[in-house]
């Protein structure tokens, strides 16, 4: 057997181009369905796991897929806002713990998730270094963000300006890194966390500047008994420091400050059901169960995947036929060689053995290549779920 | 790949439409162990927390005597508040540092939530415009809401429910009788003060007495002296205004009430030149070795004793 | 067919006794029968087989190799009765006891000269030790036939004569009891053919192998110990086309 294997190997090696093309064809035909299957499986596991860990999401009425994907995976979307007072109102009901979420901004391309300490407790995020972002202008980084940007507690991170040419929009905010979380293997690793109040500074709803009474008179345009108009040259602070922190303040009613969504963590299943029906019955907000939304979404994704499976099946079948034809022709071309081996004393059906072994070699190498390529795809492709 | 993913997802969403199929699910809540205490930073919060769950389970995280509008929690204080089962605070108006610190909303109880919007007293609001933003208003709200006995009762009822349910798993409970009785005593002292004044105005250096005066029907005249320290000259306009008020013989009670820190130099000058006897009045906002209600009641009694007989 | 040589005391490289073989007639072909009363080739003995095309020369070679199985009679190579073995056993014996040189040489184009020489060992599933020993013998044979510096080349990189020498070395590498050659010089010019036959005879004799060679080149016959004419033997039990 080892002699026949040697001959099969030498034949394959001697016809490198043909063998390489065959291996490439088979590897490609295997890689497509394998990768699609693995990715779909990974989506399925990760998406469902994250959804299953999140009992209820509450947001403004609108597309429930956008709401769910934004709240679970921080997928950028233009959600209608929920006023902060809704969180306080719901919290009064005592049916659940409500966690604020605000996700409109990014910092060097990473989503800024403005929330409260309940979020990190709920997701089990633990600081590897430093602490949670509890102060205005502070951020705590997901493990991946910290690693990618090379940031540690004490460093600074600039928010991405939303409107470069609109001077009425607040400029980028220089935020202090308070802590870095341990890797969690979830989209949280790719997020920048801060308190909701910091998001309101980013929104321009809260800001800090020199006290009105201390403003340089050259900047005062007009002054009445109870009002003063100040030149646009008075710039708001672009960084919250220990010295200027006290000057940061909100405009208008803090109860109306915007949130993107709320996570609700009911005390019991019954409380969750009652809360959801009460919220949806009232109509001014919507409450969605992430598992059912993700089930719907994956149902469609998997129907599409079934189509890709079919295409992959055809591809595989066509490749199998191609390989068969190549080896059939090869066996005819090698008839004289087989006859010689037969006459020299090779075992019966040495020809079939040689061709079969060569086919097995091709399949093994192609399989290994496809397996490696699938693993590499899964390893090096950007985390699809976190940017889903 | 990104385009393919987006396409796939968009198709999925488009095909799904917007139907709503909801099902109840209960997730695991991985909270870290919390300390079974109520963290407080102000006198009123300490008073009401102690009345609700007992002094033993009340933890001060701010030092005594520091005015609430000047305190900024250090990291230790923040950690203590975040790890407490409940934090009882006045609210963003009474404790401005709350606007800049990330306390857990589900564990933070605000006394100001018990104050109906129409009961707030506004004075001297200040509107301004700058940068590219819209005009906006600063300040103007008097924060000493707890000095109104009715509002204090409302705060006590609300906080008792919130704190007891959190620390004892219990439901609604009426405020403890002891506290109610003490509030009654405070209210009685205020009524007695109003009677002693008999329509005469109180002159004060600070708006902090607005609520208790409103409750008791006492006329209050406030001159914000903006003293910068003992011996420093006050602003002239305020002094002129004070002199005018002092000159209204029979319309005021002949006292200058200091709800904030009393300035001995100015107090002596007011006594000698304007005939106004200075009285220190502790509004009970800060943490102290005596509780808020004791300090308030004693302040009212001291003031009543100090006002000139009619 | 009968032997025309005197009795020999040397061990038999191959012997056929009372062998009868026939092809069943099929469409367009005539029936064919070959009978051999007795034929013995001793170790180191060389015999040439002559006769016109279709007279049974190749059939005789294939019978001696065990590629074809006689309908009756005894067929032994190196003392082993091939006619009594199963197909698999016969193949193993052929790979071990018989060296074959073909007219077209039939080298494998994807193997080097050295690897071609070792093919008989490979196909019989030689052990690592056997292969190592075979490699030593192959090198010696290559030296002997004058291709020592060509062992790394593939057949495409060799001349006809060089290929012939590789084929000869392949036939002898297993140290067979019998070397069978089916018109091995058919594709060579007269000088090269003469040299190749000399080389074959010399190496076979040197290794004590019996040699049976089919040839049309009558100029080479005097170099053999015996000459067997298949057609002349037809009436007395030779081939009947």
Task: Describe it.
The complex is a heterotrimer of chains A (388), B (310) and C (241). Chain A has eleven helices and 16 strands. Chain A has 388 residues and is an alpha+beta fold. Chain A has two domains: 2-46 and 297-380; 57-205 and 251-288, no CATH class. In chain A, a hairpin with a 2-residue loop joins strand 3 and strand 4 (110-115). The longest helix of chain A has 44 residues, at 290-333. Chain A is elongated, with a radius of gyration of 31 Å. The model of chain A has no long low-confidence stretch (mean pLDDT 85). With 310 residues, chain B is α/β, with parallel strands linked by helices. Chain B folds into two domains: 35-116 and 140-168, 3-Layer(aba) Sandwich (Rossmann fold), CATH 3.40.50; 177-306, Rossmann fold (3-Layer(aba) Sandwich). In chain B, helix 8 links the parallel strand 9 and strand 10. In chain B, helix 4 (149-168) packs antiparallel against helix 5 (177-197) and helix 5 packs parallel to helix 9. Chain B is elongated, with a radius of gyration of 25 Å. Chain C is of the alpha/beta class and 241 residues long. Chain C has a single domain (12-240), classed as P-loop containing nucleotide triphosphate hydrolases (Rossmann fold), CATH 3.40.50. Chain C has seven helices and ten strands. Chain C has helices at 57-65, 87-97, 113-117, 119-123, 128-145, 160-172, 190-206, and strands at 12-23, 32-42, 46-50, 72-77, 80-81, 98-101, 178-182, 210-214, 226-229, 239-240. Chain C has a five-stranded antiparallel beta sheet, with helices on one face. In chain C, strands 6-7-8-3-9 form a five-stranded parallel beta sheet, with helices on both faces. In chain C, strand 7, helix 7 and strand 8 form a beta-alpha-beta unit. Chain C starts with 11 loop residues before the first strand and ends with a strand. Classes of the chains: A alpha+beta (388), B alpha/beta (310), C alpha/beta (241). Chains in contact: A-B, A-C. Strand 12 of chain A pairs parallel with strand 5 (126-129) of chain B.
